[in-house]
């Protein structure tokens, strides 16, 4: 189960990870092929601006933060939906 704030953080952290692969002082001993792949992926990866825009346009799917009560309700709904599928 993935919540909207988890999706948002995943996108942000993935961008940070890919950027870190490009910097030898941060990630030494990474093969050139991996650095090139990270660079190619980042070329079309959404910037923070576009990721933040997702939160505005798709609030049910992406959220910077969720209030604790709303988060609890979303977890409950997802668990209920998952148990009905099985």
How is this fold's topology laid out?
Layout: H1 4-22, H2 32-44, H3 48-57, H4 68-85
Protein model, in words:
The chain is mainly α and 86 residues long. The chain has one domain. It is 70% helix and 0% strand. The mean pLDDT is 92.
Short characterization:
This protein is mostly helical.
Number of discrete domains: 1
The helix-strand sequence is HHHH
Percent in strands: under 5%
Distance between the termini: 14 Å
**Main structural class:** mainly alpha
Query: Major beta sheet, specifics?
Result: none
Q: What is the CA-atom radius of gyration, in angstroms? A: 17 Å
Shape: elongated
Total helical segments: 4
Average predicted confidence as pLDDT: 92
Low-confidence stretches: none
Total beta-strand segments:
0
Percent helix = 55-70%
Could you list some keywords that capture this structure?
86 residues; mainly alpha; elongated
């Amino acid at each position: 189960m993935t919540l909207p704030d988890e999706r948002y953080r995943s996108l942000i952290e993935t961008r940070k990870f890919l950027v870190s692969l490009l910097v030898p002082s941060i990630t030494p001993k990474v093969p050139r092929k991996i650095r090139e792949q990270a660079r190619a992926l980042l070329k079309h990866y959404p910037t923070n601006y576009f990721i933040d825009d997702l939160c505005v346009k798709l609030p049910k799917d992406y959220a910077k933060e969720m209030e604790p009560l709303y988060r609890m309700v979303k977890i409950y709904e997802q668990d209920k939906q998952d148990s009905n599928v099985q």
